[in-house]
Specification:
Blueprint lengths: L1 H15 L19 H17 L8 H4 L3 E3 L15 H25 L6 H22 L2 E2 L13 E2 L1 H18 L18 H18 L3 H8 L11 E3 L10 H8 L5 E3 L1 H9 L5 H4 L35 E4 L1 H13 L8 H15 L4 H8 L13 H12 L4 H11 L23 H6 L1 H10 L15
Antiparallel strand pairs: 1-5, 2-3, 4-6
């Protein structure tokens, strides 16, 4: 009888246990499918991290913009791109960790019964941004055949042709952000779910690309839309005070325990000559003085000005499109006689003011600075484009990729060559990854031939001045 009762109880347990919650069988730490939101967040975060890290294994833009000099190991400021495989590391991050994640997010959303078109537009914008950066860094790159797992040897597309297609896609993305939907505050690490801000960022990117290729009609079209014109609109990822969500610059300057960088004399001396109050924010003093290290040489970290303490904050916003930059783009557009509204002087002064406010200085300080003969629009040396270039370069201290690009486009900055070199040795692009020559030889060889050789000093198609 006892055995029978046990059997009945067991059978009863089995019967009542058939309705099992399958969620208990899912390994949440190893999901079979990553949500689109997670892929979008990760791809976006990886792109911002790449543009802001100070690791010379990946990002040497602060050196190429001559904002910083190095201490113990000056190879990167002497333009050695090979030893650390800098171009290859950057290439891998953009294709594998940014574009692949964004592609996955787009595929998941597109397969849904009612795809969120605003989310797709936001993804499209980030894809356009990432591809435009690849073109701006390397020139011709895989595009049409890129990210195809069945094609290990993608062909390289012409850089100018890629740009044309990106601008078409960007227009569609801007229009696609007019509806309802979009990534919420949890998935959106930039604007916390505010799609109207994303649209401003996309339109501002359109203005930047239009000015890259000197297209007045495109610039006019962008200027007619909503742009980033106030620092509250800056396209800046929100970092936090604790790992692993800190600004990667904090990892380089603080967590590493190293002092690999000091201000470059190129930049520090220029700020000093202009009595620029941003000098005290951008750098730390040495016995009450601001002293730049010799650009392209090894420098003692105790003898020269280290990067400013604001750059050591783990939660410093990582901005890649700012109000200051957009105002300078508009100033350049007017100087080139494009119909974007306003005067070059007004946009120039607005760009300087926005930069001061971005770094915690005041409008009164900006006005006093703008009144100086070497800064004032009417009396600053050089033609209109040279005036714009210098102040844009100074303002882009936290977005060194655009600082380097400002030199490539406008060519009038007070750059200096490392010892034993000339200005003609300063890189205007990155070498293709060495792996491309071995894993994709046909694509690599065709691309290298099309741009006149895989060298650091061949120019991107828009670098025509």
């Amino acid at each position: 009888m006892k055995k029978t009762l046990i059997t009945i109880l067991c059978l009863g347990f089995m019967i009542t246990s058939c309705d099992v919650d399958e969620n208990l069988n899912r390994d949440t730490k190893n999901p079979t499918q990553v949500p689109a939101e997670g892929l979008f967040t990760n791809g976006t975060r990886n792109f911002f991290d790449l543009m802001h890290t100070g690791s010379v294994n990946v990002n040497v833009f602060r050196l190429y913009a001559q904002y910083w000099a190095q201490t113990t190991y000056p190879d990167e400021s002497q333009y050695n791109q090979v030893s650390r495989n800098i171009g290859g590391n950057m290439w891998d991050i953009v294709y594998r960790d940014v574009l692949q994640d964004l592609k996955g997010a787009k595929e998941i959303i597109s397969a849904q019964a009612s795809p969120d078109q605003v989310k797709l537009a936001q993804i499209e914008f980030m894809q356009v941004y990432a591809y435009s950066a690849l073109v701006d860094i390397f020139g011709n790159v895989p595009y049409t055949d890129a990210l195809d797992p069945t094609n290990p040897s993608p062909s390289y597309d012409d850089a100018a042709t890629i740009y044309g297609n990106l601008l078409t896609r960007l227009d569609a993305a801007i229009a696609g952000m007019n509806g309802s939907g979009g990534f919420d505050a949890v998935a959106d690490p930039v604007y916390n779910g505010d799609v109207s801000q994303w649209q401003k960022a996309a339109t501002s990117l359109k203005l930047r690309l239009a000015m890259r290729i000197r297209d007045g009609q495109l610039a006019q079209s962008a200027a007619a839309g909503s742009l980033i014109l106030d620092n509250s609109d800056n396209f800046a990822i929100e970092y936090f005070g604790g790992a692993p969500n800190t600004n990667p610059l904090w990892v380089t300057l603080v967590q590493s325990g190293r002092t690999d960088f000091v201000g470059a004399d190129t930049f520090v001396d220029e700020l000093k000559s202009l009595n620029d109050p941003r000098l005290e924010v951008y750098f730390q003093s040495v016995n009450g003085e601001y002293i730049g290290g010799v650009y392209g040489s090894a420098n003692s970290p105790s003898s020269f000005s280290l990067p400013g303490t604001i750059l050591e904050q783990p939660d410093l916003d990582g901005d890649i499109i700012t109000a200051s930059e957009v105002h300078f783009l508009l100033a350049e557009a007017v100087a080139r006689n494009y119909s974007v509204g306003g005067t070059a002087q007004a946009h120039y002064e607005a760009g300087v003011t926005a930069s001061f406010l971005e770094w915690g200085l005041t409008e009164a300080q900006a006005q006093a600075y703008l009144a100086q003969p070497d800064v004032a629009w009417a009396t600053a040396p050089g033609d209109d484009l040279a005036k714009i270039a210098k102040q844009k370069w100074i303002a882009l201290y936290n977005n060194a990729f655009e600082g380097w690009t400002t030199w490539r486009i406008l060519d009038s900055l007070p750059f200096q060559a490392p010892e034993g070199m000339t200005l003609g040795d300063i890189p205007t692009r990155f070498l293709y990854p060495a792996s491309e020559a071995t894993l994709n030889p046909s694509g690599y060889e065709a691309a290298a031939s099309a741009i006149g050789g895989d060298t650091k000093t061949n120019t991107i198609f828009w670098d025509i001045d």
